[in-house]
Protein: Inositol monophosphatase
Amino acid sequence: MSVVDMDLVCGIIREATESEILPRFKNLSAAQIHEKKPNQLVTEADIEAEKVLARRLCEVMPGSVVGEEGVEADPALMTALERPGVVWVIDPVDGTANFAHNNPRFAVVVALVIDGVTQAGWIHDPVPNRTITAHRGQGAWRADTRLRVSAEVPLAQMAGSVKKRGRVAEHVLHVARRGSAAHDYLDLVTGKLHFAHFKKLMPWDHAAGVLIHAEAGGYGAMMDGSAYTPVLHADGQLLLAPGQASWWDLAPLID
Structure:
């Protein structure tokens, strides 16, 4: 039995996308785009969508909110993930640089964390209007279609997403990174990618995706072999693969 109405949350995400994000896509003025840190953009869409999502999601299940833009304003909000209780983790626009440059590879990401464990995740891809969801123990889904990661194959047949090509590029078919962790997760569970490696582990980028990947049959772990948890990992690195054997084949090649 689900701890939350998955379809209700899907509807909230889509409504916020249609009211706050899509009307601004390809319509942003310079005044609606800011650099909050060097090479890190935020737009009016990020800020307004997070406000709507935070309010609506807490109406569904009261709790704390850890959102990318809220934490930027008040880093202490991140500590909610270290305490018992309900936490909604929100990335209102994953792939903001893509969004700001009129590239449709962006997404809305929501995770529901209860007592430190991710119970449900949603990744909404606005332009094609597709949503992928997972509830712990109930699989990963797109509408009525259950999703599975790609089968394990030899390294030479693998495609992946890494920030630095390094040695792994010498052993696999293809590696790239295109500016949206959410789309990497979408590609992992729809057969376009076999693996992905991440160093920047903000919970709004990964809490939902790690659960979705696992529920689709994938294997993911920190590079030291420990399990991923939805907290801030200051120095950790995460590797996701189709299975444990593939993970061990890939891990020694990751720089």
User: Anything to note?
Assistant: The mean pLDDT is 95. The domain at 155-253 is CATH 3.40.190.80 (D-Maltodextrin-Binding Protein; domain 2). The helical segments are 6-21, 44-60, 68-73, 96-100, 181-189, 203-215, 244-250.
